[in-house]
């Protein structure tokens, strides 16, 4: 991540162009990841969606534009998500509906872990009166932009 | 809780001490009629052996195993020496027909193995008279003590999650004195098992009742080994279940490996013997099963009817078809981490020692040379063995095939795979055989590296370079180097244990089977800023 600084120090001044924001942390035994922006205070144009697992160790917090439905960011605790997936989503300015539809592609948990996408999409649908259908995970879609 | 743990250690150590001490107990002797029956059953033609063995072991004296063994080995030596002298005499006299006559009187076999067979029949004392009680005092105490030490961790370690706290400060896991003691104990055990089985005959008595109930035969030292192996794996699997109870992949994998060991490597072969079929482990693939194509094995299979033929065909299909196809779809891990017995012990007994594997570049270079050398050795030897089998020869290019087989069996099969492979766990990590010696691993590795869908995906830019992945990689792969660059890990040595993914604090690693295209991607890097790194590097 220090490429820009390194180049500057070596005399090749290039513009600092950070890509889409991402970060991760670990709070005792719960892993945290974030992709895009999820501000502490909801902004004027933003709508939020929050889902928490019944055992209290997993949750996701979606941030999206309430007018144009553009996906802005996600916080996820206890569930691993794919960085490449969200980077592409943000590049292509996809909607939150698209993200939820393709949530299975985003999952990065080890094999045999319980998947919660159905539950998450169902809650979103019931809260927002939408009818998003979760698509099955597709390798083709996952790897299409990183080739 | 802590008290239970401490008591557990003491109980375990008591069991282990009684186990070790039992070697020195008991007395060994035969009556004249028992000896006569033995010689008759064995069909020994030597006229000297009966006299010598009578002198050696038909006695009222209390001989411990070492004295017994020494006497027996002397007796066989004397007998063979007598006929060797006659052979030399007739040779000098050029009396070839008489010389030829003498060979039938010679008794072949490793001295300590011959002594073991006799000792098994000759034992008297606590081990033979109170087998059940002694089993409980040794195995029972060992199992109970170990479980008392392991189970409280469910509470003591707190919430489920990776807890490797203090692993480099603990004398058992950081090459401390406990590690060295374990090393000495394990190495000694293997040396006794392979080369001095008669010394540990009292241990074999302990599992006689179990062997008889499964196969109907009394136990050999290999049954003892198999039983110990399954016991150790089961107890240590409990530890795995507790430590990784939050990780479904590890739980399933541990169960799989335990199942294959107990059922395929222990129960089924013994049950086959009960039905007078050849002893066979269906998951043991050539070239790991290096004696599959040896003459004695081929002859045994071909003379065991339809079932023997089935085993022969299965053994070939397993190696030539099943193995590469499964590696194509799932990577080496389907065998090394989910099925193999060596892998099974490594992942259970060896779990506390993963971090001791060498991560140096030198080790990697050494590993590639030696593991492929062993593969070449086993392939050449097998080629020679098949040649001698089909052409009825007994040597190739002037070298006796038996000698080559003996050398491989000793150096690779016994020393490398056994003594070093397991003995070195507490010092050199838990996959020394798998990483440096196993020819099957080399074969699987080729397929995994060049024609497989398996990889460990690294999650873009999330790696913080903590190094846990590299530290706990049992194969000594520098996982962090790949994770930092966002590059997929495709390495022929990766056994897919999944521990790197489990210990990663940021969710950077995922074991996946995906499209072959673009699997190896050293130049695809998703960083924290929109710099095209390759473009930059190439500009300079």
Q: Which structural class matches the secondary elements of chain A? A: alpha+beta
Q: What is the mean predicted local confidence, pLDDT of chain A?
A: 92
Biggest sheet architecture of chain A: 5 strands, antiparallel
Give the largest interface pair and sizes: A-B, 37 and 39 residues
Shape summary of chain A: globular
Strand order of the largest sheet of chain A: 1-2-5-4-3
How would you describe the oligomerization state of the chains in this entry? heterodimer
Number of domains of chain B: 3
Strand content of chain B: under 5%
Q: What Rg of chain A is obtained from the alpha carbons, in whole angstroms?
A: 17 Å
Detailed description of the structure:
The complex is a heterodimer of chains A (147) and B (540). The longest helix of chain A has 12 residues, at 117-128. Chain A is of the alpha+beta class. Chain A has a five-stranded antiparallel beta sheet with strand order 1-2-5-4-3. Chain A has one domain (20-144): Enolase-like, domain 1. Chain A has helices at residues 3-9, 83-91, 96-101, 103-106, 117-128, 139-144; strands at residues 22-27, 30-36, 46-52, 59-65, 71-77. By secondary structure, chain B is mainly alpha-helical. Chain B has three domains: 27-123; 171-452, no CATH class; 453-539, Alpha-Beta Plaits (2-Layer Sandwich), CATH 3.30.70.20. The longest helix of chain B is centred in the C-terminal third of the chain and has 31 residues, at 361-391. Chain B is globular. The termini of chain B are far apart. The chains are: A alpha+beta (147), B mainly alpha (540). Chains A and B meet through helix 1, strand 1, helix 2 and helix 6 of A and helix 14 and strand 6 of B.
Any descriptors?
heterodimer, A: 147 residues, alpha+beta, Enolase-like, domain 1, 5-stranded antiparallel sheet, 23% strand, globular, B: 540 residues, mainly alpha, Alpha-Beta Plaits, 3 domains, two-stranded antiparallel sheet, 64% helix
């Amino acid at each position: 991540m220090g490429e820009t600084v390194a180049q500057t120090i070596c005399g090749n001044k290039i513009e600092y162009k950070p890509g889409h924001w991402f970060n991760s942390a670990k709070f005792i035994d719960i892993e945290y990841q974030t992709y895009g922006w999820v501000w502490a205070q909801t902004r004027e144009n933003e709508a939020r969606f929050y889902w928490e697992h019944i055992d209290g160790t997993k949750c996701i917090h979606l941030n999206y534009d309430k007018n144009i439905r553009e996906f802005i960011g996600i916080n996820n605790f206890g569930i691993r998500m794919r960085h490449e997936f969200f980077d592409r989503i943000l590049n292509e300015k996809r909607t939150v509906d698209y993200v939820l539809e393709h949530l299975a592609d985003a999952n990065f948990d080890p094999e045999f872990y319980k998947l919660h996408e159905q539950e998450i999409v169902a809650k979103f649908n019931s809260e927002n009166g939408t009818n998003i259908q979760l698509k099955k995970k597709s390798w083709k879609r996952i790897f299409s932009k990183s080739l | 809780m802590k008290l239970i743990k401490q008591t557990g250690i003491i109980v375990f150590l008591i069991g282990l001490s009684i186990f070790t001490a039992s070697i020195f107990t008991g007395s060994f002797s035969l009556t004249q009629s028992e000896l006569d029956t033995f010689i008759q059953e064995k069909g020994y033609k030597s006229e000297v052996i009966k006299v010598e063995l009578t002198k050696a072991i038909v006695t009222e004296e209390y001989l411990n195993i070492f004295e017994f063994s020494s006497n027996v080995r002397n007796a066989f030596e004397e007998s063979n020496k007598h006929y060797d002298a006659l052979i030399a005499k007739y040779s000098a006299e050029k009396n070839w027909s008489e010389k030829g006559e003498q060979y039938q009187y010679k008794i072949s076999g490793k001295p300590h193995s011959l002594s073991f067979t006799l000792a098994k029949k000759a034992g008297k004392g606590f081990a033979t008279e109170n087998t059940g009680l002694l089993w409980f005092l040794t195995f029972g105490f060992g199992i109970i003590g170990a479980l008392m030490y392991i189970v409280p961790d469910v509470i003591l370690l707190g919430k489920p999650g990776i807890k490797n706290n203090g692993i480099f400060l603990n004398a058992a896991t950081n090459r401390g004195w406990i590690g060295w003691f374990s090393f000495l104990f394990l190495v000694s055990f293997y040396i006794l098992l392979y080369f001095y089985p008669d010394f540990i005959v009292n241990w074999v008595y302990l599992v006689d009742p179990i062997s008889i109930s499964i196969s109907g035969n009394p136990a050999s030292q290999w049954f003892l080994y198999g039983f110990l192996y399954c016991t150790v794996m089961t107890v240590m699997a409990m530890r795995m279940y507790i430590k990784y109870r939050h990780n479904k992949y590890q739980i399933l994998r541990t169960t799989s490996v335990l199942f294959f060991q107990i059922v395929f490597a222990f129960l089924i072969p013994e049950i086959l013997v009960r039905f007078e079929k050849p002893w066979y482990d269906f998951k043991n693939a050539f070239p790991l099963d290096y004696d599959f194509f040896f003459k004695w094995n081929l002859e045994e299979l071909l003379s065991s009817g339809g079932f023997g033929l089935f085993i022969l065909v299965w053994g070939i299909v397993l190696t030539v078809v099943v193995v590469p196809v499964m590696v194509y779809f799932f990577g080496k891990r389907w065998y090394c981490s989910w099925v193999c017995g060596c892998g099974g012990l490594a992942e259970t007994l060896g779990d506390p020692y993963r971090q001791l594997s060498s991560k140096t570049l030198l080790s990697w270079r050494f590993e590639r040379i030696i593991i492929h050398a062993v593969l070449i050795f086993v392939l050449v030897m097998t080629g020679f063995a098949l040649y001698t089998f089909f052409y009825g020869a007994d040597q190739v290019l002037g070298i006796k095939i038996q000698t080559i087989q003996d050398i491989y069996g000793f150096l690779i099969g016994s020393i490398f795979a056994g003594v070093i492979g397991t003995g070195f766990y507490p010092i050199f990590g838990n996959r020394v055989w798998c990483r440096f010696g196993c020819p099957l691993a080399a074969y699987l590795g080729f397929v995994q590296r060049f024609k497989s869908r398996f990889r460990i995906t690294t999650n873009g830019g999330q790696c913080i370079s903590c190094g846990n992945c590299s530290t706990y990689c049992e194969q000594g792969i520098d996982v962090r180097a790949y994770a930092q660059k966002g590059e997929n890990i495709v390495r022929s040595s990766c056994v897919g244990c999944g521990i790197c993914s489990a210990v990663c604090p940021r969710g950077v690693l995922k074991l996946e089977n995906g499209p072959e295209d673009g699997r190896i991607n050293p130049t695809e890097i998703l960083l924290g800023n929109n710099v095209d790194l390759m473009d930059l590097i190439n500009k300079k």
